[in-house]
Structures are given as C-alpha cells and as structure tokens.
Amino acid sequence: MVEGRRGLGQTFSNRTFTVVNTLCMLLFSFLCAYPMWYILVLSFNEGQDALMGGIYWWPREFTLGNYIVVLSNSIIANAFWISVLRTVIGTVGSLLVTSMVAYALSRSELPGRRPITLFFLLIMLFSGGLIPFYIQLIQLNLINTFWVYIFPSLFSVWNMLVMRTSFRSNIPESVVESMKIDGAGYVRIYFTLILPYSMPLLAALGLFTAVGHWNDWFTGAFYVQDINLQPLPTYLQRVMSSVEASNMISASQINAAREASMYNPAAVTTKSVRMATIMLTTLPILLVYPFLQRYFVKGVLIGSVKE
C-alpha cells in the first residue's frame, strides 16, 4: 500500500509538472507570436481605421492598400532585391570560403595549423575597430558598392572553428585515407566527401549567416550612400527613424491607385505602410525555416555526442 501511494504521488507530481510546464510554454509561445500577429493584422487593416485603436486579433476594415503602396514603391522593390542578392551570394560565399579554411585546418599534415588557429582566435576576440575597418574599405574601393556586403563577411572565425571541430570528429579518417589511396586529392575529397557529409552542419550555419545578412542594416547605413544600393532593412530603418517618413507614400502612387480604384488612398497612413513593410521584410526568412528545420537540429547537435 505504501509503495502504491508513493507511486501514485509520483505520478500526480509528474502530471502536475507536465501541465504547469505546458501552460508556461504556451504562454511563452503566445508572447513571442502575438507581436508578429498584431503587425500582420495592422498591415491588412485600413490605416485611418487603425488609428482609432481597438484592433487586436483580426482586421476591422480589411484592405490590401498598404501592400499595394509598398510593392508599387520602386525604391522598396529595389531594396528587396538587393537584400535577396546579398543574402544568397553572401551566404553561399561565406560557407564555401569558411569551410575551405576549416577543412585545411582540420588536417594534421598542415604545417603551422595551431599558430594559424590561434591567430584567427585572437583577431576574433580583439578587432581593429570601426575606423580602421572603414579606412580599409576605402582603400579596397568597397565603399558605396554592392560588394561591401559580400567581401567583408566571406569568412567567419566562429563558423570556421565549429566546422573544423566537426570535420575532425565526425568524418572518419579511414574514409579520407582510402580516397587518398585511390588517387583523390584534397580538392576532390573536399567536394565529394566533406561537403556532402556536412550538409546538416552547413544548413544550420547557413541559416544563421542568411539571417544575419537579411537583417543587417548597419552596413548599408554607414558604408553605402547610394539609395539604390541599400538593402531593405536599411531603408526600413531609415523610414521608421526619419521625420520624413510621411514622404514614403508618394503622390504619384496615390493618384495611380485612385485611378485604378484598387483601394482607398485616404485610408493609408505611414504607420500602416510600415507594418506592411515589416511583414515583407520578415516573411522570406520565415518561409525558409520549414525547409531547413530537418537539418537544423541535427546540424546544431553534430559533435555534441561522442560514442
């Protein structure tokens, strides 16, 4: 009887913990998801109506006018494609260059690999500062060019250390040696063995790199003066922080929309257009996550468990 009561008590405690833990996680998930849902609702609601408040769960006056204004803005469309190009090229280039360095440093036959790794670690911990970096960009003629988004971010020391550890601990040395016996060189081993075997890791690190490229507004704000070369986060930050934000809705766009009778231009406000712009900025990254989810967890856990 005592053991039965003790088992019943443990079962009740486990159930209580499970219920409380589930409720806390649901509350936390709601607090994380609701701000995004609120922005989505405001982006589909008429701006003038939204100024009256009272909109929490769904649009009160549904409209696509906010998105029409954003998508008809040539500057925003150009900034969107700049963000797409820098994210794709920057992510692929960074993974390629960083993985090459990591593969070289993972080989025990590389002379001086320990001092080289220590050098990379030191420059990661102690940077030269913003002014020397800016002077270097000027000397390389990267200021006010598209390549200022690409070349400075081609190599990541942290990602290199993670890749090097993964290459050394998770890729069997016997397979590498057998490929060498068959006449394969380092380049062939890298492309036919290292990269395919490390796809989960590359997917996880690539996702982090892509999010960093997509959300980066600092580079475009300080190193690019040409508005046609600024990415979407930089343009959005400038619009949201500038006193000239009301100029975002141009008279020509409103007149064109009025003639086409697509929506009510008088109901569009700067705030409602901002909400639509935020959604368009966030949506591409949200769409990428489901496709990389199966690689993400496996890639993060690679090297964490040893047999």
Question: Can you count the beta strands?
Answer: 0
Low-confidence stretches: 243-248, 257-262, 303-307
- Written as H for each helix and E for each strand, in order along the chain, the element string is HHHHHHHHHHHHHH
Strand count, sense and barrel status of the largest sheet are: none
- Name of the top-level CATH class of the largest domain: Mainly Alpha
What is the percentage of strand-forming residues? under 5%
Number of discrete helical segments: 14
The third-level CATH topology of the largest domain is MetI-like fold
> CATH homologous superfamily of the largest domain?
MetI-like
Helix content: over 70%
Gyration radius, rounded: 26 Å
Domain module count: 2
- Overall 3D shape: globular
The CATH level-2 architecture of the largest domain is identified as: Orthogonal Bundle
Class by SSE composition? mainly alpha
Q: Separation of termini? A: 42 Å
Quaternary structure annotation: single chain
Report the average pLDDT across residues: 78
Domain ABC transmembrane type-1: 80-292
Transmembrane segments: 20-44, 88-106, 118-140, 146-167, 187-208, 272-292
Pfam families: BPD_transp_1
Protein name: ABC transporter permease
Folded structure, characterized:
There is one protein chain. The protein has helices spanning 2-43, 47-50, 65-71, 74-106, 113-125, 130-139, 157-170, 173-181, 186-197, 199-215, 218-223, 232-241, 251-260, 270-301. The chain folds into 2 domains: 2-71 and 250-301, no CATH class; 74-228, MetI-like fold, CATH 1.10.3720. It is mainly α and 307 residues long. The radius of gyration is 26 Å and the shape is globular.
